[in-house]
Amino acid sequence: AQPYLPTLYEWEVALPLDTSPPDTRIVKGPPSISANEVVGVEFTGMDDQTPDIELEFECLLDGVLIGSCSSVLSTPTTPGVPYEIEIPEGQYGKHDLTIRAIDEMGNVDPTPAKVSWTYVDVNAPDTSIEIGPEEETQGTIAHFEFTGEDPMNGTVLSDFECSLDGADFTPCTSPHTVE
Description:
The protein has strands at 23-28, 33-34, 38-46, 56-61, 64-68, 83-86, 93-102, 113-119, 126-131, 142-149, 156-157, 160-162, 170-172, 176-178. It is mainly β and 179 residues long. The relative contact order is 0.18.
């Protein structure tokens, strides 16, 4: 008896040309207000033909391309590896991070994911009264001169508020005279 010999037939599945862009999703971002110079973002992407692990990502900070970026998502059992953004010291205010996925065919997400936060300065400035009236005086006019400095970088400050006898603080400049 002849042994049975199977016939081999091979074929290849050719996917259509990939013209569909991927989609980008931010999973974990910074709080809306942060005093930290460095914030972390976890993100991922989805595409119809490129596996998510093969997607490339580009990050833009405040509309300026800062280059390729990546992150690893957290799972219930392991912490993720966020992409870290460092804001230059003293650049307080609102910042936007935009992330766009790019698939293997070079299709770019036309609706990138975006996260915004406000970087705030929580360091109190140092204020010194350089010249003021004697603690006890019969004069009814007091002349003050004062200075201020940012303790983080030594910048001389020029915006001040003054309050006399517990009244509301109002803008003032040095020198300041009270009658």
